[in-house]
Amino acid sequence: MPGQPAITILLGPPRAGKTTRVLERYRALETADKHARRLLVLVPTALAVEAAEQGLMRAPDAPPVLLDAQILTFADLAKRILRHHEPDATRLTDLGQRLLLEDIVAGLLEAGAIDYYRRVAETPGFVGALADLFREFKQAEITPEGFEAELLARGEPSPKDCATHAIYAAYQRRLKDRHAYDAEGELWRVRDLLGDGKREPFADLRALFLDGFHSFTATQVAILPLLAAGVPEVVCTLPGDPDGRRSDLFHTVRRTIADLRDHFRVTVEPVEPAPGEGEPILVALADHIFDTEEGATARMTPAHARPVNAPATICPSASSRRPGGRAR
Length: 328
Description:
Elements: E1 6-12, H1 18-33, E2 39-42, H2 46-57, E3 71-72, H3 74-85, E4 90-91, H4 94-110, H5 126-139, H6 144-151, H7 159-178, E5 180-181, H8 183-195, E6 207-210, H9 218-228, E7 233-239, H10 251-261, E8 265-270, H11 281-289
């Protein structure tokens, strides 16, 4: 659609050279622009950051400025943007999150607000399970208020759903009161800042590269077009089978491309392995594992399926609780 940023997707099987092309393009732009801070590479993990940095420096003519290359995870990106715009904000560590949830659960048990969980609240793993559940909620852009609004219409909630919502709502309120963010909340806040036009320190990007992903969370998908607005070159590598012979293996990637099409003008550029490279590992394994006779192909579970443990309803009385403001 007009006004949407453009993105080129390099689509090819593993070991086809997609990352190599991204790094070569990075070097070329850096050589022409002489300012690595105008280039940004986003990768999924800290290990991928290290691998990309090593890949850049392996070039025999790698310029010294590549030591200052901006190769970040989404978490790194969020930290830099929040450090610039909200230097007084607090990042909640995993231990801090656990202690906070333990305190919230204890208080709600004492108040009789979550009796459903009374027998299991002190068992090992309960707080960790809550943290995992709330992480899934946030990655799917589900706030306590949105959770309530969506599910109130489904009928009478169960005690489990009432208790789950009470803990989630209290958790979000406590984060707001502390001006603190958990990892997913940092990305929510970055999404809001970018939506308000606060793009520093990434306001003058020349190119944005996304490498090593096969999918994005709902929040990451919302961030990307805001970050890419006005950027002349945006490139994303995705694993896939350009000729469609193995579409059953790349369901998640097809969904990712569809999500990107909702926010970008997408051009898909197939990337085939270079001659002599041999058959890509993933496809080679598939040839031995999967029976591709009609009706016999193994089906993979969609990545966007609803979490098994996600509550199905919400407690109506939650609407009387103090609003949590912006989610964190």
